[in-house]
Amino acid sequence: MARLVRRCCGLCLDQLAGELVAAQCGHLFHQRCCEHRSQALQCPSCGAEFHGRDTLRIFCSDVVPQEIPSAVKQQMRDLRSELSGILREKRTLQDNVNSAETKVQELERQRVSKEHEIKSWELKVAAQKRKCEQVKKHLMLARQKADEQRENAAWSSYMAKLETDANGALEDLRSWFQAGDDRRRKLGRAKLDRLIEQVQSKTTTVIQQAAAYQKDLEALQDGSCKVQKRGAPAAQSRCKLRRID
C-alpha cells in the first residue's frame, strides 16, 4: 500500500499520470500542480521547499497506471472530505476573526469619539465655571455698590435730620433773643449761658459724628475695611438734638 501511495501526487492526491515533474528532493508531482504556483511549495512527503520553476520534467509514457484498490480510494475520499471540513471550519473561524476585528475597530472608533465628546464637554464645563465666577464677582460688586448706596442714602437722611434739628435749635435760640428783654430777665443770665453751651455742645457732637461717619464711608469705598451698617434711627437716637422751648 505504501508503494501505491507514493505513486500519487502529493499536492492533489490524484494518481501520477501524464506530464510529471520531480522536485529537488526527488518526489514526483503533476506538472499542472506546480506550474501555476507562484509561491514556494512544500513537499508533503519530506517537508522540503521548492519552486515550480526549479522542478525537473519526467517522461513516463511507458508507465502503465495500475488500478488503485477500492480501500485506498475510500481512504482518499475520506481524506478529501476531512480536508474539506477542515477548510470549511477554517473559513468559518476566519470569518469570525474578521467579524471580531470589525467589531473591535468599531468599538475603537466609538471610544475615540466618546473621548473627544468628553473633552468637548469638559471644555464647556470649564467655560461655564469661569462664567459663574465672573457672575459671582459681578454680584459681589453689585451688592457692595448697593450697600454703599444704602449707606449714602442713610447718611443723607441722617444728616438732613441733624441739620433740621440743629436749625430748629438755632431757631429757638434766635426766637428767644427776639422775645425781648423781659423774657431774658426772667430766664436769667445763668439759663442763657446753659442754653448757649448746650447748643454749642450739640453742634460739636454733630460735627464729630459727621466726620467719623464720612471717614467710615471713605474706608468702605477704598476697600480697606468693612463698616457695619448703621441705621438712621439708631444714629438719630444717639445724636438727636432736643428742641428748645
Automatic annotation (TrEMBL):
Signal peptide (UniProt feature, chain positions): none
Gene Ontology MF terms: zinc ion binding
Domain RING-type: residue ranges: 9-46
CDD domains: RING-H2 (cd16448)
SUPFAM superfamilies: RING/U-box
Coiled coil ranges: 76-152
Keywords attached to this entry: Coiled coil, Metal-binding, Zinc, Zinc-finger
Database matches in InterPro entries: Znf_RING, Znf_RING/FYVE/PHD
Listed name of the protein: RING-type domain-containing protein
Organism the protein comes from: Oxyrrhis marina (Dinoflagellate)
Organism lineage string: Eukaryota, Sar, Alveolata, Dinophyceae, Oxyrrhinales
